[in-house]
Design goal:
single chain; alpha+beta; Beta-clip-like; 4-stranded mixed beta sheet; binds S-adenosylmethionine
Length: 487
């Protein structure tokens, strides 16, 4: 049965205002602010009647030159990746130490095995597609591998060793050469979020975590609802966690704008607030999200290969019901009457659809690879001495010892980049890119004024396969390669 969301009908006018595309002036102003705050004058965003927004070169770029580092608007580590990588919950840098990374991973893997979880449990949360894959100089073979699913048999370490790695009592040889920022726990006390610095902790708290934290300051009823929401997301699709961050950050921005407005008007509420109290402020708080190209999730999600086209309608209905289930849990946890339209299924569906159409994989390379390579490169007798300690650890970790941090994120500038099957740029992590920012590199010289494009699909696929994948984005590619290869 079709889910019925009472907020969608009660707030229809406000919802349609929230979903209407931004005006050219609003677009110019928004991106101008991003460029000036980041002191970036080498690129610009322009609009065109056919392709919508696009990113353009405002200077010449050489082959392999960095075009752009894009700070994410919102991002999250995949739930299944949290066992393998201990990272800052805001900027996704690896934190703690080489020892805590290893000890924590071995401990959590063991815990999971004891709970007799298997790979199936996390598989549904990996169903969200992330077409714009970020290449990495530390390439991972398979990002969808369960941490305990490595083909080579792992040799467990004694429990005491794992514990002393976790609590820092056991120091590994040369690990001080690979020092990581110390882990700063969330001051709300949730025990879930950790950061690389106080500034990341504060930035996350202010942007969304203060509404999503399940620590002691959280009202018990709200905490219970939040925990249910998170559990549901982990068991179904962790893209809901990202959607919750978007809603929380909009609510928090709204209250900040309202507080500023009240302060400026000398507490003359009437001048800020008329018939429809603070809707203009909610629109303003929502502005960064307006910029992302979006459609409803259940309309734009690609039909999985194993679903027959005759079952398409029922598949799309199931996706809609899933989103509704998640939204109801989130509503119980963080509902805010002044921001009511944000809790409609229509808005929730568009937020998730925006991720579907714009998201880039979030990938941060693990320091583990560098560490073990360093040991491997030592000369004897130092190498032999070090390997007495590190080899049993490698045997316990298995082949996938250096899994990257993986997640999904929305980047304000990268999401403006249109597709070409013969792109002039690509998302590529260099060795020095050890945070969650998107890094875009020129694939060939790009002239000032030229549009900067990336490929949303594997360019080596056949013409038909590329067009089929791009159909999910709602367009047929007319790039020079497609025109040439069209039968
Ligand atoms: C990630 S967004 C790119 C930015 C988008 N143009 C905007 O206005 O926000 C992806 C959407 O842009 C449009 N698009 C991207 N590349 C295109 C192309 N080569 N031809 C036609 N439309 C394209 C499609 O609507 C696609 O779903």
């Amino acid at each position: 049965m079709e889910p019925i969301c009472s907020i969608t009908s009660a707030c229809a006018t406000q919802i349609s205002a929230l979903l209407s595309p931004p005006s050219p002036n609003q677009i110019q102003e928004y991106y101008h602010n991003i460029f000036s705050s980041t002191h970036c004058n080498s690129i610009t965003v322009k609009q065109d009647d056919n392709f919508g927004k696009g990113l353009y070169a405002a200077t010449d770029f050489k082959e392999d030159e960095l075009v752009l580092k894009d700070q994410m608007l919102v991002g999250a580590q995949h739930s299944f990746n949290k066992i393998d990588c201990f990272v800052c919950s805001f900027c996704f840098r690896f934190i703690g130490s080489i020892e805590t990374q290893i000890g924590r991973r071995l401990y959590l893997t063991q815990l999971r095995a004891n709970e007799s979880h298997d790979c199936d449990e996390g598989s549904s949360s990996k169903s969200s597609k992330n077409y714009h894959q970020m290449d990495s100089s530390d390439e991972e073979e398979s990002t969808w591998q369960c941490s305990s699913g490595s083909s080579k048999t792992k040799v467990p370490l004694p429990e005491g060793v794992v514990e002393s790695l976790m609590n820092g009592q056991l120091k590994l040889p040369y690990s001080e050469k690979f020092s990581l920022p110390p882990a700063v726990p969330c001051h709300g006390g949730c025990g879930e979020a950790y950061y690389c610095s106080m500034s990341c902790a504060e930035a996350d708290w202010e942007s969304s975590h203060s509404l999503l934290c399940t620590g002691e300051s959280c009202d018990p009823r709200r905490r219970e609802a939040l925990l249910k929401f998170v559990k549901h997301a982990n068991e179904t699709n962790d893209i809901f966690l990202l959607a919750a961050k978007v809603i929380s950050s909009t609510i928090l921005r709204y209250h900040k704008l309202k507080a500023n407005c009240l302060a400026e008007k000398g507490k003359n509420v009437a001048s800020c607030v008329s018939d429809h109290p603070n809707f203009s402020l909610l629109l303003e708080a929502w502005r960064p999200i307006t910029m992302g190209y979006k459609k409803r999730w259940w309309d734009c999600i690609a039909l999985p290969d194993d679903i027959d086209s005759s079952d398409e309608a029922s598949f799309r209905m199931q996706i809609k019901e899933l989103a509704f289930e998640s939204l109801q849990l989130l509503q119980t946890a963080i509902f805010d009457k002044e921001c009511e339209p944000l809790f409609s299924l229509e808005i929730y569906g568009h937020i998730i659809g925006m991720f579907e159409l714009n998201n880039l994989d979030l990938v941060v390379a693990s320091p583990m690879e560098d560490y073990f390579l360093y040991i491997d490169d030592l000369s004897n007798p130092d190498k032999e001495e070090a390997e007495k300690i590190t080899q049993p650890i490698l045997d316990a970790l298995g082949e996938d010892y250096s899994t990257s941090c993986e997640g999904t994120a929305f980047f304000p500038l990268q999401s403006c980049m249109n597709h070409s099957c013969c792109p002039n740029a690509k998302a590529f992590k260099r060795d020095e890119d050890r945070d969650g920012q998107a890094t875009i590199i020129a694939l060939r010289p790009i002239c000032k004024g030229e549009e900067i494009t990336i490929s949303y699909v594997d360019e080596d696929l056949s013409f038909e396969e590329r067009q089929a994948s791009l159909a999910d984005y709602g367009f047929r590619c007319r790039c020079p390669k497609c025109i040439e290869e069209e039968p």
